[in-house]
């Protein structure tokens, strides 16, 4: 009888752990979706709007663009050179 109780408790614990893992992965997925929405919003913005969001410093802008999935490397460097002149 005690053995049955132990097995039942063990199964309940496993179910709870799996539930927690599901919840955590759902939260992570939600956060990822949110961050992607933010990235897309930035990509759609013109460069002038992005510079208003950040201090007028090319390093920050480059870091921002590189952290976004799409690489806009060359046009950005050209733009930075024009900005610094």
UniProtKB/TrEMBL annotation:
This is Uncharacterized protein. It comes from Physcomitrium patens.
């Amino acid at each position: 009888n005690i053995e049955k109780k132990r097995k039942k408790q063990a199964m309940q614990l496993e179910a709870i752990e799996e539930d927690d893992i599901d919840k955590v992965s759902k939260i992570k997925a939600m956060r990822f979706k949110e961050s992607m929405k933010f990235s897309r919003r930035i990509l759609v913005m013109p460069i002038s709007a992005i510079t208003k969001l950040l201090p007028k410093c090319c390093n920050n802008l480059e870091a921002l663009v590189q952290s976004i999935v799409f690489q806009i490397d060359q046009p950005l460097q050209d733009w930075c050179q024009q900005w610094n002149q």
